[in-house]
Amino acid sequence: MHAFPTRPLTALKTVTRRGFARDAFRKAARVVTATIAVTGLTLASMQAHAEDALKFAIAPFLPEAELVEAYTPVAEHISRQIDQPVELQLFPSYLAFWEATRGGSEFDLALDSAPVTDFRIQRQGWRVIARFEGEVTQSLVTHEDDLIFSPDELVNKRVAVQPTPSVSALVLYQLFPNPVKQPKLVFHETNRDVAEAVLNGEVRAAVMPTPLVGGYGELNTVVTTDTLPFLAFSVSPEVHPNTADALESALVSFGQSDKGQEILESNNLTEIVRANDNLYRGHSELLEGTYGY
User: Fold this and answer.
1) Could you give the CA distance from residue 275 to residue 83 in angstroms, rounded to a whole number?
2) Is pTM, for the whole model, over 0.90?
3) Nearest C-alpha neighbor of 129 from the set 16, 8, 280
């Protein structure tokens, strides 16, 4: 099990291609909010945030519909545990997500990769409270009928990837360290789109999270990158300390109840365990060169 559901989905539309311009980052992020209404009595220790729903932001590593399906039960369970409403805050693309993040991360709880998690810790005073257990790598993949044995064979070839600051884009230098021997990047909205681009012959290869590769039997793994800590749950400094503590308790107790364990298993999510800033410290260096960093 892992934090990325493995079943393939029909690809959504492509958003951009090689050389996406900086002005794309400057466009206003169209944030799609899926509200999960959960009622309950307000805890006295949470009066500062009792009247407002907590905004739970998730990086767009999967299509919006799939994130809603997988993480609505997670948000609902958290709401029941802390007696406070929670809203999923989703983004149509990594460009919109990064614009919202570097603009101040105006949400309360976030589930995100190691580099952007550390960015919030270092630049915005966020704090890690939990994480999905394990580590994650990115894989360079091709169609099973197109055997590639080295990244060097893909120089000047079309390779699909999510835009920066997706981890897949941030670690490309590990696969193609020579700046004059690079592939032609083709950018897609989600990792599902990236995989489909390989399967339908649009590109020769793709870079995507390794946990997702197993959901596509026709993909062949060429090489994988170095490991990073898995997705982290972090909390804004604007959240009342009592609420932050309650969120941490709700997250790490998922596996301690039948309902919580059922939610994790039914959505192919790994166990949620305690974590702190130190595990993610330094990984924001991968963002160097990213617009707005």
Assistant:
1) 23
2) no
3) 280
Whether a cis peptide bond, with omega within 30° of 0, leads into 165 is yes
Cβ-contact 70, 269 below 8 angstroms: yes
Q: What's the order of all strands across the beta sheet hosting 158-161?
A: 184-187, 158-161, 205-209, 138-143, 219-224
Residue 140 in 3-state DSSP? Answer: strand
Domains and CATH numbers, the chain: 22-135+229-287 (3.40.190.10), 137-227 (3.40.190.10)
Quick: pLDDT tens for 179-207: 899 999 999 999 999 999 999 999 999 99
List, in sequence order, the alpha helices (H) in 125-240.
167-170, 172-175, 191-199, 210-213
Identify which of 87, 95, 13 has the alpha carbon closest to the alpha carbon of residue 59: 95
What's residue 140's pLDDT?
97
Q: Tens digit of pLDDT for each residue in 112-144?
A: 999 999 999 999 999 999 999 999 999 999 999
